[in-house]
Amino acid sequence: MTDEMSTRKINSFQKQKNKQEMQRMVVSFALMIIFTLIAFALVMLEVPSTYVIPIILLLAFVQVGFQFFYFMHLKDKGHEVPSQIIYGGVFITVMVALTFTVITWW
Amino acid sequence: MGMTSAQKRGFGATLWDWLTTVDHKKIGILYMAGGGFFFLMGGLEAVIIRIQLMSPENNFISAGLYNEMITMHGTTMIFLAAMPILLGLMNFIMPLQIGARDVAFPFLNSLGFWLFLFGGVLLNLSWFTGAPDAGWTNYAPLSIQSPGHGIDFYIMGLQLSGAGTLMGGINFIVTIVLMRAPGMTYMRMPLFTWTTFVASILILFAFPALTVGLFLMMFDRMFGSAFFDAALGGNAVIWQHLFWIFGHPEVYILILPVFGVFSEVFPTFAKKRLFGYTAMVFATFLIAFLGFMVWAHHMFTVGLGPVANSIFAVATMAIAVPTGIKIFNWLFTLWGGSIKINSAMLWALAFIPSFTIGGMTGVMLASAVADYQYHDTYFVIGHFHYVIVGGTVFGILSGLHYWWPKMFGKYLHEGLGQLSFWTFFVGFHLTFFIQHFLGLMGMPRRYWVFLENQGLDTGNLISSIGAFFMSFGVIVFLINIILTTIKGKKAPRDAWGSGRTLEWSISSPPVHYNYKQLPLVRGLDPLWIEKMEGNKNMTPAEPVDEIHMPNGSILPLIITIGMTIASYGFIYQTGNKLWLIAVYSGMAIALISMLTRSLKDDHGHHIPKEELERIGD
Amino acid sequence: MSHDHSIDPKNMPKDPSKATTEGKHKFMGLWIFLGGETVLFACLFGTYLALRNSNAGGPTTQELYGLGLVFLMTVLLLTSSLTSVYAIYHMKNNDFKKMQLWMGITALLGIGFLACEIYEFAHYIHGYGFTFRSSAFGSAFYALVGFHGGHVAFGLSWIITLMVRNAKRGLDLYNAPKFNTFALYWHFIDVVWVFIFTVVYLMGMVS
Ligand code: HEM
Ligand SMILES: [Cu+2]
């Protein structure tokens, strides 16, 4: 069987759904690029650090959310356990980052 | 199948079978045998320590050797004895309890075991050239300054065995999430499976911190980086953080599985269902969660400041709450039960007061201000031996007596079991209870000698005598194993007659595919339910059909050998660059065998229906 | 159970990477593994955050970093994430050739990223004398960014092996999970990079 033929044969409803999903992916990609641009621009424009650091961290979190939920399908069904595990990892990450910035030097 | 047919096959074939096995039961036995061996090593080291401290200013071993002895004792007991034996029990029992035929990644399971074993062997090879001597906590800058290669063996040995443990953890999580038998919902899982699950999650999140810590230590010692080097702006406290971010969850990795063991043993021998099942599950998660937020209680005296110390002190004390829930649930399980006392039950009963004392001293230590007095004294030694020996070791021994008939098809001898219990139990309290007071009197930990006439002489002597009692108990246990292996009483499938969980529904020892037909689970304590309704055994959830099983493979062993050679090379390449040959050839061996694994399709094999029907059962 | 892993296009499973038991296991196993990886990078980030100002008299973050190259690297890696999504899209449509094509593009973008990183490191070492050994900041920087680079390199050898291995045999239910797990891993590398460019480079230019 050649690939061309098999593509044509697969259920057109499914194909349609796959396509819609792909469109959503492209939109999230565009948003990710925009977030990146904003973050870089804020730093290059030398916005005061009290504002810029929380903002770029927030942008990073949102962007990573897109990666996880859309690109990696964490929002879909059947991803309950993976998402719990990732939340756990994120929780520990935040805690570790916080302690290492705050209580390593005294 | 199993043992008997293996015996008929001749030594070479049997050996090959064990080297290539991917059967979770055999890997479980290998873990327990390996862990048992290292337990004896660690025990020997402990006895040597206690002989040295038996009398003031003793000269049994030199100061340097003493440091190596305490370091290797702690490291061996935690990483190479307690944890592997627990992993062995989990490996053997957990898949049976959820009604699975194997774990999710059998190949990885075997790789994990070999990595643990070779990591342990590598670490112990250091005895020939100088063992690590900076304590099991390996604090920088002491560990950075330590001459010779001892610390390098610590780094590489733990890196290897840690990688193996991480694989085991991931494997168990996936197994429990995806491979439960029909009807086995999460809230019908036995407590031992639950604690295996939660301990695996702890492994997953804790071990990477150790991995990073060891990498940084390796870079500093071997490649001249400056993570812990104050002269170049480094900071030794980073090691302490990384070590304890791993280290505190690690102590819960050691205790949670045995909480599971006790939650199986008590209901079986009290003939009552576990009191407060849901609370037990919830408490397990709560302990795990809190266990990640308390690591700095090991660092109270570092100078993190009063705010940080207070936060960590309160979080630490909070752990006592879910732990208390568990203790009371076990007591209520026993309450009014028709209790049968045997060795498994004795270990479990002895655990409750012993561990509670350890928890109580834990709360004392958690009080940051008071800890300035206790820290690095024998009080801490007393504390953690009450939780680790009185908790983990008692739990392991309880579990071994309990599941021995399931794993090997023969009972351990009851009289010998009780003899080893009583001697060990008495020895344990003799050794460690007095240490609290020695600590309060000011005896520091990790000191080679103590001085005469400071009120420490008698206490230390008592402590050492206790160690001999414990050794005696361990030897009796070994004799018990040997004797019963030769001529032990055969065990039926429901070895205690009051089994509640799925593992008691299949033959002892189980056939290599565990379940001819997967069982249908109708509730918590599924076998008990069937027995109460007058059924002899579980109702199958599927017709007899061919069974898909994974193929054995020698590759995990070869990969591990390659990595061990490379690790050895890493240790010595700092002195002589020719050792880089070992690094590269070891890595090449490992990579080529990994490549072989991924390029060669391995679909496993099928046990045909006809064969299953012929065997019966 | 069938012993045959080939795909019947008329009965195409919704997600061929999760149609077999092994596939489901691989999928779950990789996710769990990523949970552990999160902590691994958390610790490296923590170490970096603690040591980023310990330059021992060497160049500071502001003197060292250049945002132009970092932006280019970011675009390369983000795009490679999208191209791997395209590859999986074609996998779900059982279009093996297009999947291979997009995976190939993903790998090329990854190689581009890695080349930039090597250039960057060489630049720091030769231009500024900023090395792994020169200060605690140097150690922490190379450890964090280098671990990430090592993950990229590993991912590249993974996907190239997969593509070469399966070029002739086409897509089946046995190798579909392998491609899918690679894609997940690759996205995760991107996630880590997002934090690296934010925490290391952007925050390094600010403070
Ligand atoms: C109520 C529960 C517990 C509390 C509040 C607690 C508290 C503490 C504290 C505060 C320390 C540090 C003492 C110091 O160094 O000054 C400590 C040490 C230790 N604890 Fe616990 N602990 C508890 C349970 C456990 C358990 C269940 C285990 C193991 C199974 C354990 C194992 C250890 C070990 C090994 C150390 C010594 C580490 C070292 O410095 O080598 N603890 N504990
Ligand atoms: Cu602790």
UniProtKB/TrEMBL annotation, chain A:
It is a multi-pass membrane protein. Pfam families: COX4_pro. Keywords: Cell membrane, Membrane, Transmembrane, Transmembrane helix. Residues 1-20 are annotated as: Disordered. The keyword Transmembrane applies. InterPro entries: Cyt_c_oxidase_su4_bacillaceae, Cyt_c_oxidase_su4_prok. The keyword Cell membrane applies. The chain crosses the membrane at residues 25-45, 51-73, 85-105. It comes from the Bacteria. It is found in: Cell membrane. This is Cytochrome c oxidase subunit IVB. It comes from Oceanobacillus neutriphilus.
TrEMBL record, chain B:
It is an enzyme of class 7 (translocase). Keywords: Cell membrane, Copper, Electron transport, Heme, Iron, Membrane, Metal-binding, Respiratory chain, Translocase, Transmembrane, Transmembrane helix, Transport. Its main location: membrane. Residues 10-522 form the Cytochrome oxidase subunit I profile domain. Signal peptide: none annotated. Its EC number is 7.1.1.9. It catalyses: 4 Fe(II)-[cytochrome c] + O2 + 8 H(+)(in) = 4 Fe(III)-[cytochrome c] + 2 H2O + 4 H(+)(out). It comes from the Bacteria. The keyword Translocase applies. The chain crosses the membrane at residues 29-49, 69-93, 105-128, 153-179, 191-218, 238-262, 274-295, 307-332, 344-366, 378-400, 421-441, 461-483, 554-572, 578-596. It is a multi-pass membrane protein. SUPFAM superfamilies: Cytochrome c oxidase subunit I-like. It is found in: Cell membrane; Membrane. InterPro entries: Cyt_c_oxase-like_su1_dom, Cyt_c_oxase-like_su1_sf, Cyt_C_Oxase_1, Cyt_c_Oxase_su1_BS, Cyt_c_oxidase_su1_bac. It holds the Pfam family COX1. Pathway: Energy metabolism; oxidative phosphorylation. Cytochrome c oxidase is the component of the respiratory chain that catalyzes the reduction of oxygen to water. Subunits 1-3 form the functional core of the enzyme complex. CO I is the catalytic subunit of the enzyme. Electrons originating in cytochrome c are transferred via the copper A center of subunit 2 and heme A of subunit 1 to the bimetallic center formed by heme A3 and copper B. Belongs to the heme-copper respiratory oxidase family. PANTHER family: CYTOCHROME C OXIDASE SUBUNIT 1. This is Cytochrome c oxidase subunit 1. The gene is ctaD.
UniProtKB/TrEMBL annotation, chain C:
Residues 28-205 form the Heme-copper oxidase subunit III family profile domain. It is a multi-pass membrane protein. It is found in: Cell membrane. InterPro entries: Cyt_c/ubiquinol_Oxase_su3, Cyt_c_oxidase-like_su3, Cyt_c_oxidase_su3-like_sf, Cyt_c_oxidase_su3_a-hlx, Ubiquinol_oxase_su3_dom. The keyword Transit peptide does not apply. Residues 1-20 are annotated as: Disordered. Keywords: Cell membrane, Membrane, Transmembrane, Transmembrane helix. Belongs to the cytochrome c oxidase subunit 3 family. This is Cytochrome B oxidoreductase. It comes from Oceanobacillus neutriphilus. The gene is ctaE.
